[in-house]
């Protein structure tokens, strides 16, 4: 059976629970999905049917799930992330926690209590770390870049650009906190820190809500409470300048562009394309024709399989690099300050 995995949250809007289940099913022999918890038993049943899971404990109560698992994957709305993490850690369970943490919606002091626990095993699920293109970008930056001068990053999607999409929990501050800023901005700040070693020390920005009302379940109009898009710029602890753009109403994919002493690197993460323009640290860029491109496209499921493998390493006590709770809290405190300053 191996490590017993419990999935908490079985929503289908972006199917994040499905992606996690697929990732753990790829670790045959190391683990088994033994329990699913969701708002309704029907949601649990549908998740199990989609993945052919048999003999799984299905429940609407977190405590019942914690009775029968060794580790938990939290795929709930943001408002439950830290409260459920604390309850799981108190029961001695390892936690793979979907981002963002939900600092803006958590009870005061909850993050600090978790950080103070020496026994907490919490991995924050910044899944793009586990793509081939990001690993290659990181290696090239470490080998050839030297000092980073400028980092640009953007991420977004188009699904919510349709005004007919009903109001979702992601659009309510009580459930989500910020909007595109927390959802996409957290990914980008993690990638800048992980791949380029750029951690923002200060930043300022602007947010906008371009579709200010939505229809919940098709009945009337309700105000959207957080940002559809956000742009910010800042300075990293090492002096690098950064600019970040995120949008849930009209940007496509994840794009990074980083320049410094050793040249310029551009990565399209979803497409798996990496281009490098070399530069001598004390000289010019190489001729234009000497730019080098690598194509590292791969099925999206691989990133979740690699993340699941890393989480199992953590549960088993093996050495593994991952986004810690401490790193994620620092990142989200910056996002919270940005969100508050832009209101």
UniProtKB/TrEMBL annotation:
Keywords: Oxidoreductase
Domain Gfo/Idh/MocA-like oxidoreductase N-terminal: 3-125
Positions of the GFO/IDH/MocA-like oxidoreductase domain: 136-265
Recorded GO MF terms: nucleotide binding; oxidoreductase activity
Listed Pfam families: GFO_IDH_MocA (PF01408), GFO_IDH_MocA_C3 (PF22725)
Alphabetized InterPro entries for the sequence: Gfo/Idh/MocA-like_OxRdtase_N, Gfo/Idh/MocA_oxidrdct_glycsds, GFO_IDH_MocA-like_dom, NAD(P)-bd_dom_sf
Protein name (Swiss-Prot/TrEMBL): Gfo/Idh/MocA family oxidoreductase
Source species: Flavonifractor plautii
Biological classification of the source: Bacteria, Bacillati, Bacillota, Clostridia, Eubacteriales
